Amino acid sequence: MYGWRPVLISPPHLLYRPALTGMVVETLPYPESLEDRLHALEDYSERTFKPVDSVLQEVVERAHAHNMPDIHVGNMDGLTLEVIIRMAGYKKASTMVEVGALAGFSGIVIARALGPGGHLHTIEFNPDYAEVARESFRKAGLEDRVTVHIGRASQVLEQLAELGPFDGIFIDADKDNYPVYLDWAEKNIRVGGGVFGDNTFGFGHVWRDPEDFEEQHLRSAISGLRSFNARLADNPNFRATILPTDQGLTMAVRIK
Ligand SMILES: C[S@@+](CC[C@H](N)C(=O)[O-])C[C@H]1O[C@@H](n2cnc3c(N)ncnc32)[C@H](O)[C@@H]1O
Description:
One of its GO terms (molecular function) is O-methyltransferase activity. InterPro entries: Cation-dep_OMT, SAM-dependent_MTases_sf, SAM_O-MeTrfase. This protein is of the alpha/beta class. Helices cover 40% and strands 20% of the residues. The protein has eight helices and nine strands. The strands form two sheets. A seven-stranded mixed β-sheet has the order 5-4-3-6-7-9-8, with helices on both faces. The chain starts with 13 loop residues before the first strand and ends with a strand.
């Protein structure tokens, strides 16, 4: 699984206690390395906010039982997605699209957030994975709220366009094609709708020049992610940000 870690922006070993006379700065014993500190905060966040309930845990186990890769959305990123979609207050009959279903972990998160009457169209090109995802939605009692489409995302998206405009899209598949999925989103997400992209820190490498990579597939992946982020950041029809979680979660709202 891609883990979730908060990014620290202040000196991590200092605890400020402004309520006391003047500013008292206390130095506490702290995990030495940044990695350990981030792990401690990640553990704390998951213990406190409990992003994985028994239904999602079952999805993880189902994926494992089917020898599927453990690459679902980070636990805390999934929870963030759910909270934000709920916060958006989409009305009944809101519809979202997901690119990359895997075993249905993030699909369950999104379908729950959309609520009764909402609908998620999720796309998966591996028919075996799609079947596992269907089982996950069935077991979660969400089969009426989710349609699993089998096929290449670019082709399925074209077919889905006639059902739009949509309230949001979660993009979590082949990184080199994120700009292609964004082309679609620019045309098919309504004003007020959201565009979410997972792994947009490019596994820690998005800041690099794609030409730094020897392997072509990495060059394409980093270049796709950089283009996705930059285009959303610069498009006056969207307001976009990137949540600095371990994997990076880009989110944008269409404003006009
Ligand atoms: C990172 S996983 C998705 C994880 C899932 N969103 C979750 O969090 O539970 C990416 C999935 O996208 C699928 N995929 C990759 N490229 C695709 C494409 N071009 N069209 C459709 N599915 C694709 C892969 O088979 C894989 O199951």
